[in-house]
Write a structure and sequence with these properties.
eight-stranded parallel barrel, two-stranded antiparallel sheet, 9 helices, 38% helix, 14% strand, globular
């Protein structure tokens, strides 16, 4: 079975997200824990979460993915920004335990001129402060396109963060197809080679989820512009090969394409029709 879903709004509650996912034939979804530009998170209704947990079990949902706000930057040169990252991380991981054994995804951050090595040290330092032995949530480092001073466009950078984190059994990776294509990993012509490289550097056991997106920008452009499936430079055929690859075919796939709910439904139908 293809485990696939899209990005939904948490503002209407978890049970509503479950119903919306089912309405487009999805069995997973992603949501922002709070406004993507930061700020206070909406209060969680524990009765709503309990109802969702039961619904997800009955409807055989795959693991869901919470996404940290884009403003979370643990390797900023601004102490206030780093303090915000710590506060959000701690609060979000506490909230995620209401939907246990799922994923919390974040962009590793931008070193803003301090250098990738310094950025990696700062990211690992935060993870060492906030990860807890008893947590059930797996924190996912997202692969990045490499624009500006982003950390995480190379597999080696993600591996260094993982290796420097004490409780790294709580860490995994979310691979974004648009981002890795823009970063210079040729998932169109050498998908096996990309997965072999990932396995050698990070380990395929760390790969937990996929952001499935086409790319408006060309290969190795280091520019992050998502496109609808089949309307970008990765292309429909390459993305269909991707979802059917044995390495990833049982993972949760999250569409972050520029769509409304009906557009996601169309893409899910297309991908399911081509899933073997």
């Amino acid at each position: 079975m293809l485990n696939i879903g899209c990005h939904l709004s948490v503002s209407k509650g978890f049970l509503n997200m479950g119903h919306e996912a089912s309405s487009i034939d999805a069995n997973t979804f992603q949501f922002f824990t709070r406004n993507p530009q930061g700020g206070k998170a909406k209060d969680i209704d524990e009765n709503d979460v309990a109802a969702y947990n039961e619904y997800a079990l009955i409807h055989n949902f795959a693991k869901i993915v919470a996404h940290a706000p884009y403003t979370l930057n643990p390797c900023s040169d601004n102490p206030q920004t780093r303090d915000f990252a710590k506060m959000v991380f701690i609060d979000d991981l506490k909230r995620m335990e209401l939907v246990p054994h799922n994923y919390y995804n974040f962009h590793p951050g931008s070193h803003v001129g301090q250098g990738a090595n310094k950025g990696i040290e700062m990211i690992a330092e935060l993870l060492n402060r906030i990860l807890q032995k008893e947590q059930t949530t797996t924190v996912l480092l997202e692969t990045m396109s490499g624009k500006g001073s982003e950390v995480g466009c190379r597999f080696e950078e993600l591996a260094e963060i993982i290796n420097k984190t004490n409780l790294n059994d709580k860490l995994g990776v979310c691979l974004d197809t648009c981002h890795v294509f823009a970063a210079g990993y040729d998932i169109v012509n050498d998908l096996d080679g990309v997965f072999d490289e990932f396995d050698k550097i990070i380990g395929l056991e760390r790969l937990k989820a996929i952001h499935l997106n086409d790319s408006l920008m060309p290969f190795a452009s280091h520019k992050d512009r998502h496109a609808k499936i089949g309307e970008g430079l990765i292309g429909k055929e390459a993305l269909i090969r991707f979802i059917n690859h044995t390495v990833v075919k049982n993972l949760p796939f999250i569409l972050e394409t520029p769509n409304e709910l009906d557009g996601y439904a169309t893409e899910i139908k297309l991908l399911k029709e081509n899933y073997k």
